[in-house]
Amino acid sequence: MSRISSEQGKAESMTATQHLFLVGLSGSGKSTVGRLLAERLDKPFLDIDALVEERCSQSIQAIFSREGEAYFRECESRALAEAVRRYQSAVIATGGGIVTRQENRVLLRAAGTYIYLAVQPETALERLDAQRAEALGATPTIRPLLAGPDPLAALHSLLDARAQLYEDAHVTFVTDDKSVEQVAQEIIATVISAGEIANDPHLLYVKRVQVGGGYNVVIDWGGLGRLDANLRMIGLPPRVFLITDQHVGSLYAPALIGKLMAAGFKPELLTVPAGEASKSQQQLNAIYDWLVEQHAERGEAIIALGGGVVGDLAGYAAATYLRGVPLVQVPTSLLAQVDSAIGAKTGINHAQGKNLIGAFYHPRLVLVDPATLLTLPARERTEGWAEVVKYGMILDAKLFARLEADADMLCSFAHPVALQLCQIIGRCIELKLSLIEQDEREQGLRALLNYGHTVGHALERVSGYGALLHGEAVSLGMVVAAAIAQEAGMFSKASMARQNNLLKALGLPITYDGSARAADILAAMQYDKKVSNRQVHWVMPRRIGKAEVTPMPADLVESVITTFFDKE
Question: Which pTM does this prediction carry?
Answer without folding.
Answer: 0.89
